[in-house]
């Protein structure tokens, strides 16, 4: 599998001819969108995704009369890749609703970073990343309900997105519960039910992931990175880092740079 192009945060009313020039193109639409095909219209009010093959450029318009926000990846596949996609029953040329785009969004962001750097294992990284996206799309298309039957799910998802986007902030469960107008106990139960992880664990994991990016891509000291990730104590930061990564921040930096 070869990834030819990655574009994130596109904002268009329609696609250009150069947006779909390879075998397949994966789209993640972040705003309401209406697809037009064979005289029929399908509207998705929330996030949606689709994999289109050559010759089937998606014809879409915004459902709210504003430009559509989306990400896309153009890629080519081998016969083995095609067999894999077929065995997974991956929907082609058929948009599906996406109830939780965190995994796909994180994968696309990682792919964009790797695409610009083209590291030693670039091809393997891209292939595994695309398979993660395929699996996520398959899981979404197989679900019967458009949203999990969890109270406040959309608002919980917005909280989680904010945490992952800005893990360095001083996140207060009390403030979150106040904004959601629910109790701490109820919030913890709903969050764990929705995402399989506690809110505090999400904050910690997001901070350590951010620290890994800084260790890999900057020359900031461990103390400076600790502060940028929202920690008041360097020793506490290093304990949490070792717990999740099984090495110290300095060891992690040496490892990724040697690779």
Keywords, separated by commas or semicolons:
five-stranded antiparallel β-sheet, Jelly Rolls, 2 domains, 49% helix, 259 residues, three-stranded antiparallel β-sheet, alpha+beta, single chain
Could you explain how this protein is built, in words?
- Helices cover 49% and strands 18% of the residues.
- It is of the alpha+beta class.
- The strands form two sheets. The chain has a five-stranded antiparallel sheet with strand order 1-7-2-5-8, with helices on one face.
- Helix 4 packs parallel to helix 7.
- The longest helix has 21 residues, at 122-142.
- CATH class annotation of the largest domain: Mainly Beta
Strand content: 15-25%
Specify the biggest β-sheet: 5 strands, antiparallel
Which stretches are low in confidence, meaning pLDDT under 50 for 5 or more residues running?
none
Structural class: alpha+beta
Provide the fold topology.
Elements: E1 2-12, E2 24-29, E3 33-37, E4 40-44, E5 48-53, E6 60-62, E7 68-76, H1 79-87, E8 96-97, H2 102-117, H3 122-142, H4 153-165, H5 173-180, H6 184-195, H7 199-217, H8 222-228, H9 234-245, H10 249-258
Antiparallel strand pairs: 1-7, 2-5, 2-7, 3-4, 3-6, 5-8
Helix pairs in contact: 2-3, 4-7, 7-10
Task: Give a quick summary of the entry.
The chain is an alpha+beta fold and 259 residues long.
